[in-house]
Amino acid sequence: KSGRVVVLQTIPFSPTQTLIVTRDVSEADRLDTMRRDFIANVSHELRTPLTVLSGFLELASPAVPMSAQHLELMRTEAVRMQRLIDDLLTLSRLESTAAPSQEERVALAPLVQRAVDLARALSAGRHEIRIEPMPADLRGAEREIESALTNLVTNAVRYTPTGGRIVVGAALDTEGIALVVTDNGVGVAAEHIPRLTERFYRVDKSRSRDTGGTGLGLAIVKHVMLRHQGRLDVSSTLGEGSSFSLWFPRQRVVLREPHTEPEPE
Ligand code: ADP
User: Fold this and answer.
1) pTM over 0.90
2) How far apart are the first and last CA of the chain?
3) Among 91, 121, 198, 225, which residue's CB has the most CB atoms within a 10 Å radius?
4) For residue 97, what pLDDT is reported?
5) What molecular function terms (GO) are annotated for this protein (predicted)?
6) For residue 212, what pLDDT is reported?
7) Mean of pLDDT values over 13-35
8) Which atom of ligand 1 is the closest one to the Cα of 183?
9) CA nearest 212: which of 90, 122, 96?
10) Which pLDDT belongs to residue 260?
11) Which of these ranges, 10-14, 40-44, 72-76, 252-256, has the smallest mean pLDDT?
12) Mean per-residue pLDDT for 226-251?
């Protein structure tokens, strides 16, 4: 393991001995490298769509109207930049505080329905997407939890070929509850799994890009789960499919009251 120490002070305390006070700065170095990499990545990710936009603008003039196809490409790239900036702002908001933005009761069934509606729109009928019953509700920040689940379900669509199946279910036990998104899509090889939540880490850059990915989705999910004292679990087999789960600890589970009819008067 590489490391670096800096000498803060040298104190001679005998003719043959000197006390050297040092500080281990390996952690500071590591953070510094991370910050530099991040800035380089963001710049690169922003420059790509900007190059397309300015290239087409360069070609345009009042005498040569822009073709419908070029306009469409420009729109796509503008949307990509917008999405990237939105995700960057979301990440920095999530990192600036450790606690969820709200502690409210979150009804899971409608939340799952909304996430799946978005995924179905993205799928445009190319996948079969099924929802299983939700055994309980949650306590936390609804907006954050919804964005985490939406990320997982839309990823399932983006990384599953046409004709694939996606299931959103839940598993409740005495330890907590897991919201589980399972697909039979492209899957992820074991060596990539630990790195999926790193910012801008993608197994297949072009697939991520072609399906409108920013490379920040799972980093956002990881932060949302940390804030809720939970975690993101991933299991996957290359070529067979994946299962991504949002696990929340017991103290966040809200059991539903059994529905009782009001007594007749
Ligand atoms: P991206 O915008 O690239 O999808 P994410 O952070 O959401 O960024 O995901 C990171 C990477 O994890 C993706 O690029 C992809 O390689 C992999 N991945 C995420 N979800 C799935 C899935 N359901 N099946 C296979 N690979 C996935």
Assistant:
1) no
2) 75
3) 225
4) 86
5) protein histidine kinase activity
6) 86
7) 89
8) 23
9) 122
10) 62
11) 10-14
12) 97
CB 154 less than 6 A from any atom of ligand 1:
no
Q: Could you give the ipTM of this predicted complex?
A: 0.99
- Positions marked catalytic: 44
- Paired residues of 166 in beta bridges: 129, 183
| Best mutation site among 45, 158, 159, 183 for ligand 1 pocket (most ligand atoms within 8 Å of CB) | 159
Quick one: pLDDT at residue 256? 84
Which residue has 């990915």 as its token pair? 213
Q: How many Cα atoms are found within 13 Å in the side-chain-facing hemisphere of 169?
A: 9
Regarding the beta carbon of 215 and ligand 1, being less than 6 Å apart is answered yes
2 pLDDT more than 90 = no
Mutate to test the pocket of ligand 1, among 83, 129, 182, 188 (most ligand atoms within 8 A of CB): 188
3-state secondary structure the chain: CCCCEEEEEEEEEECCEEEEEEEECHHHHHHHHHHHHHHHHHHHHHHHHHHHHHHHHHHCECCECCCHHHHHHHHHHHHHHHHHHHHHHHHHHHHHCCCCCCCEEECHHHHHHHHHHHHHHHHCCCCEEEECCCCCEEEECHHHHHHHHHHHHHHHHHCCCCCCEEEEEEEECCCEEEEEEEECCCCCCHHHHHHCCCCCCCCCHHHHHHCCCCCCHHHHHHHHHHHCCCEEEEEEECCCEEEEEEEEEHHHEECCCCCCCCCCC
Tokens of 10: 């040298």
Q: Does the beta carbon of 84 lie inside 6 Å of ligand 1?
A: no
How many CB atoms sit inside 10 A of residue 226's CB?
14
Is the pLDDT score of 264 beyond 90? no
213 lines ligand 1 (CB under 6 A): yes
